[in-house]
Amino acid sequence: MNIPDSLRYTDQHEWIKVDGNIGTVGVTDFAQNSLSDMTYVELPEVGRDVKKGDELAAIESCKAAASIYAAVAGSVTEVNEELESDPGLINTDPYGGGWICKIEIADEAELETLLTAEQYAPLCQQEG
Amino acid sequence: MSEQTSPQKTPLYQLHEELGASIVDFHGWMLPVRYQSIMAEHKACRESAAVFDTCHMGQFAITGPRAAEALEGPLTQKASALKPGRCKYGLILNEQAGILDDTILMRLGEEDFLLVVNAGTRAADFQLIEQQLAAFGDDVSLVDNSSTFGKIDLQGPAAYEVLRSIVDDEKPKMGYFAARRTEILGHQCVLSRTGYTGELGYEMYLPRAGLGEVFKTLVDHPLVSPAGLGARDLLRLEMCYPLYGDDMSEETNPVEADLDRFLNLKGNFTGSQALAEAAAAGSRRKLVAFIGEGRRRAENGQEIAVEGKTVGTVTSALFSPSMGASIGMGYVATEFAAEGTALTINHPRGPLPVTVAAKPLYRQGTCGNINAFSKE
């Protein structure tokens, strides 16, 4: 199970990579593995404002459907359009080519509420 | 549907664990849903070969001088018209023509039949057949071999190439829906050229002692991948093969399920009178196949609408890699069952437009072509 130290996590198996005030968002290796092959991704609209916990995107896999929630409040600045034709990128490269969208973070203090890799790993153990 | 007991393991369970399978409870059986990737397993079956553990399915041996005659009571297949060495698809109906199960009947000899039934319906099927056969006394014997035998399916264009290397006789070539007794790796077995994927394939009915060796030999073959229920469901839905419990049940009759074309409507079996009446009257709803425009798919149980009015329900739906679009089946009012009819699935994420399409959706299947692989 790949859980990079450089990222922050939610207990819903999303990750966020922070670069200045921009956060890149995706789902974790654990999530992609439990959901199996992704077949569809519904991306948010660029410019949409979200609160922490709002539904940001939806994904469907061979056997399941799941919602992706905003880890922090902000505004969507960019979406990964490649996922529209190749949702399998989430399976093959969950922390790279499988990114879902970028958010301009409204309140950086909210990042402190997220899990570190060390805090997230036991959740996967429990659910795995 | 499922029997109320803790889930059972097939004789191949240990091998699935060693292969790293994700296991699910399917009608009371712990079976692999996938080993690695459902998509990769689907692709292996469409392009090379895949092996499936189907030991959960029931198998009944029916023998004796009046076996053929006796089977014409409970089964829609006309057993007496089936030639030795052949198989036929059919149903078990109740008196109202509600579908109790779908089955494959094999005639292995004049007085020697094998019936393959679904896992969740096995116990009820056995009871019903046993009752109907009782009148024939010692002239017919019915034995449930489900716990002493198992079944392995080998499916895919390369299935014949692979089978040739493990069948111990001179003539592994068989016609579509042929069946016979043979030996595989020294184990006596029944072999049929049938399947649930649309590809060239075989089903092997082996005593428990031989299952592990045959499964392992197939998994180790370079042309074969192990495949789970996830790939199996996708493969069968692309072919529009209905799944018992999802696409048909006791609440649906064969005319509604679009299966009457496979049945002998003049037979004299349980439910035949009700079936003939249903066929003459026509049904108010029909099981149709549909295809979407994009990747977003429907979910089982969602309503199907036309111009805002509910006209049916989704019974199966998945994204199809072969079609590059979402696909499914569902029951709709008969006036909306024609090919090309535009339907809307009431999906909580917004209306999902789909179009009624001819069955099967996938048309490149190799099930009828034994030379599928060598000609490539």
How is this structure best described in words?
- The complex is a heterodimer of chains A (128) and B (376).
- Chain A has helices at 29-35, 82-85, 89-92, 117-127; strands at 8-9, 14-19, 22-27, 38-42, 49-50, 55-61, 65-69, 74-79, 101-105.
- Chain A has 128 residues and is α+β, with helices and mostly antiparallel strands.
- Chain A has one domain: OB fold (Dihydrolipoamide Acetyltransferase, E2P), CATH 2.40.50.100.
- Chain B is an alpha+beta fold.
- Chain B folds into 3 domains: 8-57 and 147-238, Gyrase A, domain 2 (2-Layer Sandwich); 59-144, 2-Layer Sandwich (Alpha-Beta Plaits), CATH 3.30.70; 284-357, Elongation Factor Tu (Ef-tu), domain 3 (Beta Barrel).
- Chain B is built from 8 helices and 20 strands.
- Chain B has helices at residues 13-18, 38-47, 67-71, 122-133, 159-164, 208-220, 229-238, 272-281, and strands at 8-9, 22-26, 29-34, 49-53, 58-63, 86-93, 99-109, 112-117, 141-144, 149-155, 179-184, 187-192, 201-207, 224-226, 285-292, 303-306, 309-320, 325-333, 342-345, 352-357.
- In chain B, the strands form 4 sheets. Chain B has a 6-stranded mixed β-sheet with strand order 11-12-13-10-4-14, sandwiched between helices. Chain B has a 6-stranded antiparallel β-barrel with strand order 15-18-17-16-19-20.
- In chain B, strand 7 and strand 8 form a beta hairpin.
- In chain B, helix 2 (38-47) packs across helix 7 (229-238).
- The model of chain B has no long low-confidence stretch (mean pLDDT 95).
- Chain A binds chain B through residues 36-37, 39-40, 42, 58, 60, 62-63, 65, 84, 87-88, 91, and chain B through 22, 33-34, 37-39, 230, 234, 294-297, 299, 318-319, 326, 349.
Trace the largest sheet of chain A across and list its strands. 1-2-3-9-8-5
Report the biggest beta sheet of chain A as strand number plus sense, adding barrel if it closes.
6 strands, antiparallel
Helix content of chain B: 10-25%
Look at the structure and give the CATH class of chain A. Mainly Beta
Secondary-structure element sequence of chain A?
EEEHEEEEEHHEH
Count of separate structural domains of chain B: 3
Provide the low-confidence segments of chain A as ranges. none
Q: Strand fraction band of chain A?
A: 25-35%
